[in-house]
Amino acid sequence: MADFEGTALLTPSEMARADELAIGQGRTGLALMEAAGKAVADAVRLNAAPQPVVVLCGQGNNGGDGFVVARRLAAAGWPVHVAFSGHIDALPPDARTNAEAWTGETLPLSPDALAGCAIVVDALLGAGLSRDVSGDMARVIDAVNRSGRPVFAIDIPSGVDGATGAVRGIAIKADRTITFFRKKPGHLLLPGRGQSGRLSVVDIGIPGAVLETIGVTLRQNTPELWSLPPLDAGGHKYGRGAVMVVSGGLLNTGAARLSARAALRIGAGLVTLVGSRDALQVHAAQVTAIMLREAAGPEALAEAIAAGKIDAAVIGPAASVGETTREASLAILASGVAAVLDADALTSFAHTPDTLFAAIARRPDRPVVLTPHGGEFARLFGRIEGSKVDQARVAAERSGAIVVLKGGDTVVAAPDGRAVINAHASPLLATAGSGDVLAGMIAGLLARGMTGLEATCAAVWLHGDAALRHGRPGLVSDDLPDLIADAMAAITPASLR
Ligand SMILES: NC(=O)C1=CN([C@@H]2O[C@H](COP(=O)(O)OP(=O)(O)OC[C@H]3O[C@@H](n4cnc5c(N)ncnc54)[C@H](OP(=O)(O)O)[C@@H]3O)[C@@H](O)[C@H]2O)[C@@H](O)CC1
Ligand SMILES: [K+]
């Protein structure tokens, strides 16, 4: 996977380390704070005409940034007051220097401090909360959220946990958030993403090279992270990879068909639906370019994989929960093809997860991708503590597979600890069959020869992009495969299409 440093995400403790490393390389904390405050003041001035501003300052360096913003806006002629209830002497040194340099009005931190102001700057808390928000601070945050006034949050909306995206008690609902150096996981994970409004990242003088020292392993999913394989002018259909999708029974064929259509659209050379004769008769009435092959039972599946020169297989969409799907999944894993296990295939191992993980461990050379939503994840892995990223990482390590923990903030994690958060998504994707399409897309890219993590991240991004392209209520999963071509074209130079 490309090591594009712009996509790195820093937890609050990694960000503190980045500050430290920058300071060790000759920057001063005061200079970083000045740059941070300047960037926020500039954002306010760029987005609004001069009008009364209240800067809500907390007890730490986030508050210190707030004092810089207040000073700079006042120097530009804006009417500004600060609301602050702490003791200046108790502030960390750089914040204290800036609080002492503030010569304008300071009111106690309370909802009354909002009176007469038109814009709120939130400098109450940074990304590394040590507890839930309560008391006066909670009352002020509630008043800000009810006031309807535009809010500029410094670094992160106060109350959002920068590591997990959780709202700790209550959090500012910002219109804009200005963060420094790199985004934090809490800007992308839900509900934090929804609290942040429009997010911008500004350079405050921390050298990018510190990322290597920190050893960042979490990234945001963007097309910089992966590249789709170019089409070979002399290529034939087998060169573009063959996908097999296991069908559900007679009355449950639609989900597998969605996967198959998606695999073909994303560029697999050949796609075959396999299942019972009666299920195939339903498919036969619906598909044209997709092939059909009768195969019932694990041996027949293994034969179909060998005969079809299959590169990647999908099992799970409406496959039914139980022994049949369990055995079929194990046959696919034993065959050694790249495998995507989704939906019912995951739930079929709810009581025997170790059997699944052992089967994955026996074939370390070819990727296995598990694509659970929250419920399927809990059934397979039980309760895992921590953020969504922590959970996906633990599950990937335990299973030996790439784990896609789906949702509006899908997290992809690999067994080696690398993880990616996808925010390129649409609420329109919360519709029946959307996951079946994703499973087919992943398999299609695996068959085309992409590595496990790249194929998965690319599919997740393109899946989100397809829905964003549609962009209006009424999207159904049947629409998604036909939007994949445009999504791919938009990120592929014309010469490589
Ligand atoms: N470092 C640098 O060089 C640079 C840093 N920069 C800026 O610094 C910010 C990070 O600063 P920070 O680490 O001081 O954190 P911040 O949240 O402001 O204050 C911590 C205080 O809040 C308190 N507290 C915690 N949770 C609470 C709660 N729920 N409710 C109430 N209080 C709570 C906590 O209390 P304690 O845990 O000690 O009891 C402690 O007193 C960062 O966001 C960026 O804006 C930029 O200037 C660039 C240079
Ligand atoms: K803040």
From TrEMBL:
Homotetramer. Its EC number is 4.2.1.136, 5.1.99.6. It comes from Devosia enhydra. PANTHER family: ATP-DEPENDENT (S)-NAD(P)H-HYDRATE DEHYDRATASE (PTHR12592:SF0), ATP-DEPENDENT (S)-NAD(P)H-HYDRATE DEHYDRATASE FAMILY MEMBER (PTHR12592). This is Bifunctional NAD(P)H-hydrate repair enzyme. Its cofactor is K(+); Mg(2+). Binds 1 potassium ion per subunit. K(+) binds at N62, D122, S158. AMP binds at K406, G407, G408, D409, T410, G435.
